[in-house]
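From: lab user (bench 3)
To: helpdesk
Subject: output format question, protein + heme C

Hello, I'm new to running complex predictions and I'm not sure whether the block I got back is the full result or only part of it. Here's what I submitted:
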Amino acid sequence: MKTRLVILTIVAVTLLAAGVSFAGIALTKHNLSSAAGANSTIKSTGAGSTDQLCIFCHTPHRADTTSGPSLWNRNNATAVGGYTLYGSGNKTLGNSTVSNPNPASRACLSCHDGNNAINAVINTAGVAGTFTMPDVAGRLSGNKLDAASGYNLGTNLSNDHPISVTYDITKSSLNTLTAGTGVVRVTSDTTGQGTSGSATVECTSCHDPHTSASSYFLRATTAGSKLCLVCHNK
Ligand code: HEC
Ligand code: HEC
Ligand code: HEC
Ligand code: HEC
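Helpdesk reply: Thanks, we reran it on our side. This is the complete output you should expect:
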């Protein structure tokens, strides 16, 4: 009886430890480090690689304080004004025209617009640096997301759900959401650094770049289109 209890305790503790060490971003496609990641295909390997996970996006020091989210370790080579957003073409939004993604979305685009080297960061222990990141056919070429990759959205975002648009709760077609709360996130924090503005929809409204709890880093399930129905009163 006593032995059984001890064994059960060991099993429980082991499971708990495993749960802690394997949860979260390490299991996702955003684990770009050389450390084992169950789901990632694009990884830093060989000489000049890094086993750090957060460094591709965050740094404890010398972070970008002008545009990125919290302690942001990346520059975006795409010029301000270098994007075409939804509604800029033949579609119309009942919103003021948005000409440039807010920093919260520019952060994602610093990898996902295909124009930026994924392996280049602002700070690696005091100096800017790049990590060795071998090409993966059809996915990564020359350190940038391959043009053929479904993950490369390009700089023409007119065929993507609107981003950096105001979430105007006075519109009857939208549900009432409070900035910063809820399953999906409309954010009043357009820079990701605490500057408040009107609540807007950003990439981070629908996606949480750290989570392994859902596919595509989504904040709400697409089953029954629940994600869409959180915001749209349809
Ligand atoms: C692929 C890029 C990426 C990686 C890798 C990454 N983060 Fe983030 N992180 C972000 C973005 C983007 C935000 C802003 C999120 C938002 O505004 O919702 C953020 C925000 C945060 C925040 C602020 C609070 C929050 O959750 O919004 C913390 C804390 C954080 N990250 C910690 C980490 C740690 C620790 C790691 C490594 C284990 C890590 N991140 C790896 C992109 C990344
Ligand atoms: C440091 C570069 C980097 C940043 C910053 C980054 N991503 Fe990614 N992301 C990647 C890479 C690399 C992949 C995997 C591509 C592949 O496997 O072909 C990926 C994959 C994804 C996927 C697909 C996941 C899946 O399960 O198939 C989504 C969705 C995504 N990212 C959204 C975002 C969003 C939203 C942000 C900002 C909050 C962001 N990413 C920021 C590099 C980045
Ligand atoms: C309104 C919600 C919403 C917003 C805003 C949003 N996404 Fe997504 N995204 C999704 C959904 C849902 C999927 C799941 C796959 C699909 O339907 O294409 C997805 C999938 C993806 C994928 C995987 C490839 C693909 O096309 O399916 C990437 C990469 C991605 N999103 C990046 C981004 C980036 C970067 C932004 C901001 C510029 C962004 N997303 C804004 C809802 C959103
Ligand atoms: C975080 C809240 C949010 C989520 C989640 C969301 N939307 Fe939206 N969506 C908006 C806002 C805000 C607008 C801009 C509305 C406006 O100002 O006219 C918009 C615009 C649209 C439009 C364009 C309307 C036009 O005038 O051209 C369509 C279509 C749409 N969304 C469909 C979807 C679908 C489909 C999903 C799920 C994949 C989704 N949305 C998820 C907030 C959201």
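A quick orientation on your result: The pocket of heme C (ligand 2) is lined by residues 29-30, 32, 41-42, 56-57, 107-108, 110-112, 118, 139, 149, 151, 203-204, 207, 209, 215-217 (CB under 6 Å). Let us know if anything else is unclear.
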